[in-house]
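step: validate -> pass
step: tokenize input -> pass
step: predict -> running
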Amino acid sequence: MKVVSSRDFNQDVSHAKRAARIEPIFITDRGRPTHVLMSIENFRHLTGQTETIVDLLAMPEPRDIDLDGSRPTTWDRQAKFG
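step: predict -> pass
step: emit ->
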């Protein structure tokens, strides 16, 4: 486990976030552990959680959206898989 002082954490948050992808980071204040930084994947594994509907809805939308309306309005199975 890696231990980082609160001062060091505040000076380089990006470094702490990168390190937390590998293992939890303990953040200390005056030498005493006060917080733990870990990746969301590690947190979910630890708590047994999976992605929620909120997580899925918060995902960015696909970039291949057709805004000019040139696509057919009905779905043609033969054209798609034929």
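step: describe -> The first helix runs from residue 6 to 11.
step: cleanup -> pass
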